[in-house]
Design a protein that fits this description.
By secondary structure, the protein is mainly alpha-helical. It is 69% helix and 0% strand.
């Protein structure tokens, strides 16, 4: 009985996190110039914010991540760091260090990291690496060379991955179902 109630509470909390992240993504999409942003736009904007949040982690936390070779980061995040030429690695920044990420942005980052495995299709590692790599600012040409595929394939993978995440979020949330 208690276990069922705890599971129901966990499910409700997960839906609240999804809806909060999507609402933040909708705001970000509107700020980026989208007049009528949909779920796909919101997810893409939250992915971009998550990549920026990773860059903005405080140095102490980045030191722990680097010291452990970022061992507890998901594979696709580590691979993306390598594709981006180490720009996410500690000390790779040029210019002033950005302000630390806020608690809400870190919460959305955690939520996005839960969504990313849902983006994988027939080749899940490749698909998620492409999606998160593009969100982190990796050039399509670098992804092409690494994966041995064409530019159009890179963007097709991105689009299909976003569609998979949208479909999954629509299954989990009534709010997401109502978005275009």
């Amino acid at each position: 009985m208690l276990k069922a109630a705890a599971t129901k509470d966990d499910d409700a909390a997960a839906v609240r996190r999804i809806e909060a992240a999507v609402k933040a993504g909708l705001r970000l999409a509107q700020q980026a110039g989208k007049a009528e942003p949909g779920l796909r736009d919101a997810i893409w904007e939250v992915l971009l914010e998550a990549a920026e949040t990773l860059r903005r982690l405080p140095d102490r936390e980045r030191g722990w991540l680097t010291a452990a070779s970022r061992a507890h980061w998901p594979d696709y995040v580590r691979e993306t760091a390598a594709i981006c030429g180490g720009s996410m690695a500690a000390g790779a920044r040029s210019g002033p260090r950005p302000a630390p990420a806020g608690a809400a942005a870190i919460e959305r980052l955690d939520t996005v990291l839960l969504w990313l495995p849902q983006a994988g299709g027939a080749h899940p590692r490749r698909d998620v690496s492409v999606l998160f790599g593009l969100a982190c600012g990796a050039r399509a040409a670098a992804l092409q060379r690494r994966l041995g595929c064409g530019r159009r394939t890179i963007y097709d993978i991105r689009d299909r991955s976003l569609a998979r995440i949208c479909a999954r979020l629509r299954q989990q949330s009534d709010f997401c179902r109502g978005l275009g």
